[in-house]
Amino acid sequence: MRLPALTELTPRQQEVSDKIAAKRGATRGPFLIWLRSPELAEKVDELGAYCRFQSAVNERLRELSLLIAARHFDAQYSWNAHHQKAIEAGVSAESLKELASNEVPHFAHADEQLLYTLATQILRDHFVDQRTFDAALGEWGEAGLVDVIGCLGNFSMLAMLLNTFQVDLKLGDEPPFPDIRGFAKVNTPRILRFVHGRRTVDNRSRSETPVSFPGSYVVPTVTPKPWLPAGRRA
After folding, report:
1. Across the strands, what pairs with 193?
2. Mean pLDDT of 79-107
3. Which of 98, 96, 140 is nearest to 118 (CA)?
């Protein structure tokens, strides 16, 4: 972790820490960073608890939403903390393995696929197309859709904190992502993936062979050659 351990707490930090510990069992992981700003820590704890336990969507989608944000931001700590929780809530282990590997996941439930599509569009493209918006609104209603987006924001904020301050993995935890070592990306080739006319970019290990799936094809990125002098053609 990039900041030294907190050895002495101010009265306000102690008050907030006690509230967090009473709710979560201990003040640990990212909360040891949030606590440097106790007023923010208190509000983050309340928002995080709402997104984890009380939001309008079910537990399975809450956990999947957190993992989608964690994979998008390469947040290893939060992935490891919630991977098993998501499986216990009903998300298939195989789809999470695909997500961790930056492959397009094959989810067992239609609402999981919808959540993944919505989250990927807003996190990667920064916009949501009308078809996806209409499907999400029909699936979760106004309150549910607002909760999905708000909680994606909360989980993204968590991921940014974990990576900025380099919160260490728990002792014994293995790095979950093949393209991340420590707090940096490893050198992997970029793969352009076209899914139903939409382009995405995957990072894959050099030993991995790109595979196609229905409605898609993959094209390895080729390093462009320098432009030839004017008047010449290859």
Report:
1. 200, 218
2. 97
3. 140
* C-alpha–C-alpha distance, residues 37 and 161, integer Å: 13
Express the helix, strand and coil content of the chain in percent, nearest 5 each.
Answer: 50, 10, 40
Q: Cα(133)–Cα(127) distance, rounded to whole angstroms?
A: 10
Average pLDDT of the residues in 69-96: 97
Strand partners, 198: 195
Percent of the chain with pLDDT over 90: 77
Burial class of residue 200, CB neighbours in 10 A (0-12, 13-18, 19+):
middle
Check pLDDT > 70 for residue 201.
Answer: no
Structure-derived torsion over alpha carbons of residues 51, 139, 95, 204, reported in degrees to the nearest 10: -90
- Per the listing, tokens 């930090």 go with 13
Buried b / exposed e along 163-176 (16+ C-beta atoms within 10 A): bebebebeeeeeeb
- The total of other beta-carbon atoms located within 10 Å of residue 118's CB is 24
pLDDT tens-digit profile of 166-198? 999 999 999 999 999 999 998 765 544 444 445
Work out the number of other CB atoms within 10 angstroms of the CB of residue 4.
Answer: 6
Which stretch of DSSP H or E encloses residue 14? helix 11-24
Using CA atoms, how far apart are residues 29 and 19, in angstroms rounded to an integer?
A: 15
Q: Which two tokens stand for residue 43?
A: 């509000």
pTM above 0.85, yes or no: no
> Domains along the chain?
11-164 (1.20.1290.10), 187-220 (no CATH)
- Contact between 80 and 54 (Cβ < 8 Å): no
Contact 203, 188 (CB under 8 A): yes
- State percent of the chain over pLDDT 70: 80
